[in-house]
Each structure stands twice: as structure tokens, then as C-alpha cells.
Amino acid sequence: MPQKKVAPLRNNGEPYITHPIAVAAQCAEWKIDAQALMAALLHDSLEDCGVTKAELIERFGSPVAELVDGLTKLDKLQFNTREENQAESFRKMLLAMARDVRVILVKLADRSHNMRTLADVPRAKWSRIASETLDIYAPIAHRLGLNQTYRELQDLSFRYLRPWRYSVLSKAVTKARSRRRDLIQKVQREVEAAFAASGITVRIAGREKTLYSIYKKMDSKHLSFAQVTDIYGFRVIVPQVIDCYTALGVLHQLYKPLPGKFKDHIAIAKLNGYQSLHTTLVGPSSVAVEFQMRTEAMHLVAESGVAAHWLYKVNKPDEASSDRLGTKWLQSLLDIQDETRDAAEFWDHVKVDLFPDAVYVFTPKSQIMAMPRGATIVDFAYAIHSNVGDRTVSARINGEHVPLRTELKNGDVVEVVTEPLATPNPAWLGFVRTGRARSKIRHHLKTMAHTESEELGEKLLSQALRAEGIDQFPESDAEYEPIWEKLLRFTGSRNRQELLTDIGLGKRIASIVAKRLVLLLADSGQRPDALLLTRERFTAHESTLQGSITLDGSENASVQFAKCCRPIPGDAIVGYLGRGEGLVVHIQDCSVAKKLQHKDSERFITVEWADDPVRAFETGVMVTAKNGKGVLAKVAAALAAAEADIVHIDMGYDGAQEDVEFRFVVGVRDSAHLAVVLRNLSRTPSVMRAERRKVAMPGP
């Protein structure tokens, strides 16, 4: 006899159907459309009931099936794994959000019901689920303006994450509520009487601070419970926007306002669309009471956030509310995702941009821009446009020149100065705050480094081919395409660009690739030129058959000048193709270079200086001087007179010594310029000795 199928049960013994019904009921409160309500009822059907996506499409339509599919993927996410996996999961969730925000609304309803019934789950899972809710879902609810859900998720997470602290605080709040009941009722009566006398129609509702926000305030500001004064407050709901300001005047006539506690979130709304006037007043018995003035529409957005898009668009169908309801933030995350393929890096960006603590600044044309707290001028430039950020050279705040790392403050008027040929500085990564700026800078630097390495690789391979008797570099055209394909199979590279980049980065030796390429060319009938082969081998150093690279200082990321010896034009130099570092240039008699040459001689190539270098080069200078008043100023003046830039200075200073040593890193044009600098220093009063140091010195 076939067994009767038993309906699945939840941990508390109730039929499982109660969960999807509760989720759908929450979504119905938000007045979300019928498709999302169907998805809420079906959100576990793919995972737990063996239903296929095709069946859902057939019975309920493609939009509902897509929503359920997005929710099924989210249900698999757990954030207690390693950072990499955490980031990958979170990326999928955010992409689902950006495709259709209803997915995350149903997910938040699902999480809310799961948190309400968390007591029935084994205690060992409490910490993980509560932490995940507090770190991920509560901030998203806040970011989307779902204030009630945000407050509930925070309190429920706190309850299961810190049960003892939750219990103690809960009892303290209950006691305080009974003690202050008379006081709160008195304030409410006086406020209602004041508004009645003014003839303004208002609806007054009490507001109590959540347990978690009380706990956070006590923890962050090191307060006792008795010192938290703003546990209670009132919301004043008025018909029109102008009435908010009138109500503010009535309240300020009734009670004295606390200085610095007034905030106008109507004129400048928060990032998630929240609008209200906030003021804190000193009520009876010197108790501070907070009041929030808002219209019904503002109240709807404050409580329901993105859901208010459905609730309120019926009344104002033409209002572009989506612009202020978090859409820009979601699109910004998609932009970062497109450029950042590294999951951990994406997670870093999102953790910054997820929290809406903002400062509001103005462009020179008085457009208001919201930036995360701590954002700098570079963040502001990238927020305007990536081209503006890439080409930023300087900036003015309120008309005054300031460094690019300056943090923005509320009300700043920010003006960015750009240059067409400017490029991002790697040092910016040390102070930028937003994920967008960081990803754009990294993307540009990676692209630039690869382009330069590819150019260097082509130059090295071309010269190695000349050493093998091939004068013409085989281009990537129809004639040579079969040869390049065979060469790529031999090297294991994906394409020609990757092979040349690897040569430029020192991951492959140009002479070995050239020898293979010569064999392939010979098979196709192209023989080495005997005259060129003889000439190249006669003129080239016998151990370096890869030709010579000319350096003028414009090579940027593809060429590094070794910090151990700091070569400058005029020095005899050698080039070392480090594994993955590109070309590293050393002075010929540098001890580090000699050790590398002994161990890895095939990685050395001939390098030489260009006749006209395009920039200054850093070198070390040691100055020994008599200790005395103003000695450093005299030495610095001598360097300035010789037109040498001071890049870094290190002082082995001891006030008791008669002599003092200054170790400088200075920028000079060439060895002749360095000789002038040393001569200038030697003639300076108090200086006993000035010499170049070719050993490793402190410096940037």
C-alpha cells in the first residue's frame, strides 16, 4: 500500500506553508505587485519541491519564474565562509537586486519571518544567522529605505547575537518607559494644545529608540543607560511641506531647542530618499525630546523606502522617485562589478558603499552631490565622471587650493582642475574612500602597465630576432597568422598580446621565444640574413644576444630603477628581466646585480641611456656636517641652488654629537648634474664631506 505523503513541517512543528504565506503577507503590506506576491508564495518551490523553472514559466509566466529563480540563488547564500566565497555570493545577490529590486524585497520579507521564528532553530546557528542579518540584510534594508524592516532586523539580530545584553536593556527600557510615561504624556498634551492654538492640522505619533541603537550608542560613546537621553521622541505628520517648517516654529516657541541638534533632511534628502526635519528640544524636567516633522508622503518613504515607489506612484505618477530611491547606488555597484573581476576586491568596494553615512557637497554650478563620510576630492572627481577622475591634477575647496587627499565636509564647494595628459597616481589608492574611485584607478593602472609591458616585450622580441638574423618583425596578419598560432601553442599563451606582455614582464625569455620563432619562419621558407646575423653577433656582447634597450625615463610601469643602487644617466648600467616585475635597471657594479648575474645570467640584457632623458632620476647622497643651528637649512639651500629636488631625507640625529649625517634621496638629471650638486654641498659652511651613496638607503 503506498505511503501517504506528509506535508513538510517547520522546526516549530507548523506546516511549512505558513512560511511562504507570512512572506507574501509582508510583501502585501508593502503593496508590491501581483507578480512579486506570486514569487513570495513560490520562493522555495524550485529548491524544495522539485519544480522546474520551465514549469513555473508555463503556469505563472516568465517574470514570476525569473523572480523565483533569483530568490532561489539567494537562499543558497551563507556568509560564514571565507572572504572570497562571501564576496562571490554577495556579488550574485547584488546583481539580482540590480536586475529587479523586487527580488531583494521578497528576500528581506523572507529573512524577517525567519528571524521572527529563529528561537525554533538550533542555538548553534543563532550567531551565524544573526551576524549575517546584521551585517548584510539590515544595511540593505536601510539603504533601500525600509525603516521598519531595518529596525526589526537589527533588534532581532541583537536579541540572538547578544541574548544577555538584550534582556538587560529590554528590562531597563521597560522600567524607563513606566517612569517617564507621565512626562511623555504631558509633552504630548502640551504639543497638541500648541498646534491646536496655531490652527495647524497635525498627527502626532510617539517614537521609541530601538534596543540595538541604544546599545550601539552606549557602546560607541561609552555611556551608561541613564546617560542616553533620546530614547523617546515624536513624529509630527503634517499635510504640506511648508507646514513642516511652520510646525518647527511652533515647537521652538513652546520649548527651547538644543543648539546643533537641528537637521534639515527635506531640503537635502538622505541617499535612500528619507526626508524629515529633525530638532531636539528641552522639555519639562530638562528632559531632551526629539521631534521629526514630515508629510504623509515623506512618512511613507521613511517607513517603506523603495516599496513606497509602488505605494505612492498612484498619487504622483510623473514623479521620478526611482532616482532618489536607491537606483543610482545599485547602478554604481553594477559599474564596479563590470570592471572588477576579483571577488575580494569587489567585496571591499561594496562594504564601503553599502553604508549611507553621507556628506553633501556642491559642484561649482551648485549641484548637490552626496558622498560617503570620509570621501576625498579624488572620490568626488570620479563620482562626476571617470575621465574627470583620471585627469585630476589639483583642486579648490571654497576657492582655496587644497591637497587632493583632503576630506570633504558638509557644504563644501568643490572645484576640480584637470589636465588632458594627466593620469591617475598609484598613491591615490592610499586615501580614496569610494569603491568606484578605487576600482577606476586600479583598472587604469593595470591597463597602463599591461600596455607598456606589451610594448617592451615587442621591442625585446624584435631585438632578439635581429640577433638571430631576422630583420623584419612578423606582424599579426594573414601571412604570419599560422606561424603565430604555432608559436602560441609552443608557449601556452592565449594570444599574441599575452605572449608579448609576458616577455615584457620577464616571465618569458625573448631569446628562447625568438629561436623558436626563427625555426617556424624557416619552415615557411624565411631564412636568417647571414650578414645581419654576423653583424649583430660581432657587435653584441656574447652573453646578451637580445640587443640593447634605450632608456629616457618615460617608461613608467614597465621599467623600474633599482632602489639598491639608484642608477642615473652617465652610470654604466645593466637590465635584469625579473620574473613578473618587468625590466629592473641596476648599476653595472651593483652587488645585488652581480649576485643575480651569477645565478640568473640569461635574464640580463644590455640597456643604455638615451642622449636626452626626459626627467630627473633619484640617487642617494650622504652629507656629513658639523652640528649647529640652521645646518639643515644651509644644506637644503645648497641643494636648491644646484637645482636638485629633495625626494626624501633621513637624519641619524643625536643632539649630543658634534657631527651629524644627512642621508638624502635627490632628483638629478645625470652624473654631471650630480657632480655639480656634490661640489655645491662641499663648499657649504659646516659641511665636511658630501658623497654619493650607491648602497641601499632609506627612501620612498
Give an overview in words.
With 700 residues, this protein is of the alpha+beta class. The protein has 5 domains: 18-161, Orthogonal Bundle (Hypothetical protein af1432); 165-319, Beta Polymerase, domain 2, CATH 3.30.460; 357-433, Roll (Ubiquitin-like (UB roll)), CATH 3.10.20; 444-609, no CATH class; 617-693, Alpha-Beta Plaits (2-Layer Sandwich). α5 crosses α7 (101-116). It starts with 17 loop residues before the first helix and ends in a 7-residue tail after the last strand.
Structural class: alpha+beta
Radius of gyration: 35 Å
- Give the number of DSSP strands: 20
Number of helical regions? 26
User: Any low-confidence stretches, pLDDT <50, length ≥5?
Assistant: 1-6, 79-89, 309-327, 540-547
End-to-end Cα distance = 82 Å
- Count of distinct structural domains: 5
Largest sheet: 6 strands, mixed
The global form is extended
Helicity, in percent?
40-55%
Instruction: Report mean pLDDT, rounded to a whole number.
Output: 77
Give the percentage of residues in beta strands: 15-25%
